Amino acid sequence: MSQSTTTALSTSKPTDNIGKASLWRSPEAELMFLQATGNYSWLYWKNGKKVLLARTLTYYQAQLSNAWFIRLHRNCIVNLLFVERLETLEATKGGLVYLRSGDVLPVSRRRLSQVKRVVSRYQTLGNGRA
């Protein structure tokens, strides 16, 4: 594990209060997506860095802009600025979101119709540029 990913785990107090922490210095527009691992969250940044913090996705979802971020699955939130395309799988399987970075994220069956609507509207407005 790299130094940046172990920093959050080695501290005794949470240091990820948005706007106050050293780990949250990049603006929201630089955050590509977040993935949950239990009560921890991986934050994936545009510059290739990823940081593990001791907070749930629910915590971050309340902090992030609803205009840019959407929940894809119980364990994933994505920044719409980085979405390249959405693929629907079989009706019972949900879908996949392809990011400009090459990452592929799952979309739950339950959230698929909302994600389709939001991604389509976002791309129609021409905002899909990172």
Q: In terms of structural class, how would the helical and strand content be classed?
A: alpha+beta
Instruction: Compute the average pLDDT.
Output: 81
CATH class category name: Mainly Beta
Overall number of structural domains: 1
Sum up the overall morphology in one term: globular
The CATH architecture assignment turns out to be Beta Barrel
The helix tally amounts to: 3
Spatial separation of the terminal alpha carbons: 28 Å
Superfamily at the CATH H level? LytTr DNA-binding domain
- Percent of residues in β-strands: 25-35%
Largest sheet: 5 strands, antiparallel
Q: Give the helix proportion (percent range).
A: 10-25%
Query: Could you please say which CATH topology applies here?
Result: OB fold (Dihydrolipoamide Acetyltransferase, E2P)
- Flag low-confidence runs: 1-23
Describe the strand arrangement of the main beta sheet, using strand numbers: 3-2-1-5-4
Q: What order do the SSEs take from the amino end to the carboxyl end, as H and E?
A: HEEEHEEEEEH
Strand elements, count: 8
- What is the gyration radius calculated from CA atoms? 15 Å
Task: Give a quick summary of the entry.
The chain has 130 residues and is of the alpha+beta class.
List keywords for this structure.
alpha+beta, 130 residues, five-stranded antiparallel sheet, 8 strands, OB fold (Dihydrolipoamide Acetyltransferase, E2P)
How would you characterize the overall build of this protein?
- Residues 29-121 form the HTH LytTR-type domain.
- InterPro entries: LytR-like, LytTR_DNA-bd_dom.
- It holds the Pfam family LytTR.
- GO terms for molecular function: DNA binding; phosphorelay response regulator activity.
- This protein has a single domain, classed as Beta Barrel (OB fold (Dihydrolipoamide Acetyltransferase, E2P)).
- With 130 residues, it is of the alpha+beta class.
- The protein starts with a helix and ends in a 6-residue tail after the last helix.
- Strand 4 (69-73) and strand 5 (76-79) form a beta hairpin.
- The longest helix is centred in the C-terminal third of the chain and has 13 residues, at 112-124.
- The radius of gyration is 15 Å and the shape is globular.
- The protein has helices at residues 3-10, 57-63, 112-124; strands at 31-37, 40-45, 50-53, 69-73, 76-79, 83-88, 95-99, 104-107.
